[in-house]
Amino acid sequence: MRYISTRGEAPALDFEQAMLTGLARDGGLYVPETVPAMSDIASLDGLPYEEVAFRVIRPFTGDSFSEDELRGAITRAYGRISHVARAPLVQLAPGHHLLELFHGPTLAFKDFAMQLIAQLFQIALKRSGQRITIVGATSGDTGSAAIEAFKGLDNVDVFILFPHGRVSEVQRRQMTTPDAANVHALALTGHFDDCQARLKDLFNDHAFRDQVGLAGVNSINWARIVAQVVYYFTAAASLGAPHREVDFTVPTGNFGDIFAGSIARAMGLPIRRLIVATNQNDILHRALSTGEYRVGTVEPSISPSMDIQVSSNFERALFWAYGGDAGAIRQLMDELKTGGFSISQGALETLRDQYASGCVTEDETLQMIRTIRDETGQVLCPHSAVGVAVARRHLEPGVPMVTLATAHPAKFPDAVEQAVGLRPELPPHMAQLFDLPERVSRVENDVAALRSLILERRTA
Ligand SMILES: Cc1ncc(COP(=O)(O)O)c(C=O)c1O
Ligand SMILES: N[C@@H](CCOP(=O)(O)O)C(=O)O
C-alpha cells in the first residue's frame, strides 16, 4: 500500500513513513493510492471492536507492522476505552442512533485514533531509534488526546498549540495539568486556524523539520484518519450493513472524521449519505451549497472544537473530487492563501454526490440539548447537539441515521448548564482535574518565536 500527496510533488510513502511524516513535504496530505475493498462486512456484526479494528486497518498498513504488532497496538489502545463496546450505539428515536465516541480517557472521539497511533509510533521509534518532536494544533480535543496518549513516552516531545481563551476550562486543564517532562502546552494568541497555520509553517520549514524530527498527530496525518474508519463499520454492521444502507451525520470542523466515513464508503460500506454538520462557522456548508470556499472570521461558539474556517482535510476530499489532479489542488491551495477559491462545477457535483450538509445556530444547539434531554434523558455535548440537529432535518423513513457523538458533555459544562441547568460530572479518573497545578506557556502568533521555544524546550 502506497500513499501519495494531494499536491503531487512529494515522494510516495508506505504506511509507516506516511505516519511519521505527517504533512507531505510539498505541503499536501497523504492519501492511499487505491482504497482496499472490505470483504464480508456482514461478518463484522457482533465481533469485538478490536477485531473489527484489525480487519479494517490491516489492509492499510501493508508491511509496516506485523500482524502481531498491529493486534498488540490495537489491544493496548482500546483497552483504555472504558465502555465494553468501545463505541456503543444508542437509539435516540426510531431510526435515529447516537454513536457514542466519548468513552476514552479524554472523553472525545480523538482517543480512538490518538491512543492507537501512540502505540504505532512507539513500535516504529523503538525499531529505528529515532527521536521525534510532535507539534499539534488544537481547538481543544486533539491536544488533550495527544498529550494523554504520548505523555511520558520515550523518544517523543509533544508541543500542543491551542488558542488562548478559546477552549473550555476542562479542555485547557487536560492539556496543562499533566506533569510529564515531554509535554508542553502552548497558549497561542489567536484562534485555531492560526495554530494550524503556524503548525504548517513549521512543517514547510524543511531545515527545522529535519533538525527536530518534526511529526504531526493532527488529522493531516493519514494514520489518524484510518483509525477513525473503524467505528463507521461497527455502527453500520450492527444496523444491517451490507444488506441495508445507513446515513451518517458528523459534527465537522477539520473534516477528518467525516473523511474517514468517505474511506469506509470507498471500502464498500453502504453509506447512503454522509452529512456534514457545522456550527455558525459554516464554511463547509457554504462551500457545498454555493461552490465558493471563502474564509471568513472565526466566531467563537459554544461548540469551540469546531470553530474552524480552514478545514485541513477538505483538501483530501477535493483531491478525490478533482479526480486526483494534484495540479488543480496546488492551484486551489495557492488561492486559499488569499482568501478562498471557487470549486469547479464538475468537482462540486462530485462533492454533492458524496456529502450533504447543514449548519446550526447557537440557539438551535442549546435547544437541541434541551430537546434530547427531555425526549430521552440523554445529555449531549454541544458538538454532538449540532450533529443531532442537522441529522433530524435529514431523517428519512427506512434508512437508519447515525449521528456521531464526538465528546462527553462534562467537557463543556458551561454550555450544558446554559441549556439544561445542570453541570455534568466528570468521570472519577478526572476528579482531581481542578485541583492540579497548570503548566502552560503563552506564545505569540509568530513562527520564529515558536521555533525558538521548541528548540529551547525539547528534552532531546
Ligand atoms: C468534539 C468534537 N466534535 C467534532 C469535531 C470535528 O471533527 P473534525 O475536525 O474531524 O471534523 C471536533 C474536532 O475535531 C471535536 O473535538
Ligand atoms: N477539533 C480539533 C481540531 C484539530 O483537529 P484534527 O482532527 O485535525 O486534529 C481539536 O479538537 O483540536
UniProtKB/TrEMBL annotation:
Lineage: superkingdom = Bacteria
Q: What is its EC number?
A: 4.2.3.1
Describe the location of the Threonine synthase N-terminal domain by residue ranges: 2-78
Among PROSITE patterns, the record links this protein to: DEHYDRATASE_SER_THR
Q: Does the keyword Lyase apply?
A: yes
Keyword vocabulary terms for this entry: Amino-acid biosynthesis, Lyase, Pyridoxal phosphate
Q: Which reaction does it catalyse?
A: O-phospho-L-homoserine + H2O = L-threonine + phosphate
Q: Is Lyase tagged as a keyword? A: yes
One Pfam family here: THR4_C
Provide the GO MF annotations for this entry: pyridoxal phosphate binding; threonine synthase activity
Give the protein's cofactors: pyridoxal 5'-phosphate
Q: Point out residues bearing the modification N6-(pyridoxal phosphate)lysine.
A: 110
Q: What sort of enzyme, by top EC class, is this?
A: lyase
Matching entries from SUPFAM superfamilies are given as: Tryptophan synthase beta subunit-like PLP-dependent enzymes
- To which pathway does this protein belong? Amino-acid biosynthesis
> What are the recorded Gene Ontology BP terms?
threonine biosynthetic process
| Entry's family note | Belongs to the threonine synthase family.
Recorded protein name is Threonine synthase
Q: Which species is the source of this protein?
A: Paracoccus alcaliphilus
